[in-house]
């Protein structure tokens, strides 16, 4: 699989800018976490928007939020992999973002998520979508690859790191 060809430099953000206020104990911690995830997803959809292969941005964001309500897409080890099949995706799209400070994305291991791969595909694009998901999951299982992604200084280096793993 040639995953590196799906990812261009304009689909890579080396530092997420989403600001989430610390939990102040007022209200539900679950609601606070959900609102934080929605803000992060909004920024991630913004990355995909550069690709110009989305239909309605608002509906695409709603699809990501609804997917996240079903089950978290954080997979542990500092990685989150928000992914959906949506009518709002005209073609397969993938983006990458990093947060050095990390975000609470409801990871099963309780750790903050630092590396975000966001992926959207049309509902009929199962085979390619599943191949990419499997390939990326295998790459991200390796601690050395995750460490490399955390230390990268330019978007081109992200693409080269992925190409080296293929």
Return the average pLDDT rounded to an integer: 91
- C-alpha termini separation: 7 Å
Strand content: 15-25%
Tell me the number of helical segments per DSSP (H or I, 4 or more residues long). Answer: 5
Helix content: 40-55%
Largest sheet descriptor: 6 strands, mixed
Structure, described:
The longest helix is centred in the first third of the chain and has 21 residues, at 29-49. Strand 2 (74-76) and strand 3 form a beta hairpin. Helix 1 (29-49) crosses helix 2. Strands 1, 2, 3, 4, 5 and 6 form a six-stranded mixed β-sheet that branches. The chain has 166 residues and is α/β, with parallel strands linked by helices. It is globular, with a radius of gyration of 15 Å. Helices cover 42% and strands 18% of the residues. It contains five helices and six strands, in the order E-H-H-E-E-E-E-E-H-H-H. The mean pLDDT is 91. It has helices spanning 29-49, 57-70, 126-140, 143-151, 155-165; strands spanning 12-13, 74-76, 79-80, 83-85, 93-103, 113-121.
Care to give the gist of this entry?
The chain is an alpha/beta fold.
Task: Please give a handful of descriptors for the protein shown.
166 residues, alpha/beta, six-stranded mixed sheet
Produce the secondary structure layout:
Elements: E1 12-13, H1 29-49, H2 57-70, E2 74-76, E3 79-80, E4 83-85, E5 93-103, E6 113-121, H3 126-140, H4 143-151, H5 155-165
Parallel strand pairs: 1-5, 3-6, 4-6
Antiparallel strand pairs: 2-3, 5-6
Helix pairs in contact: 1-2
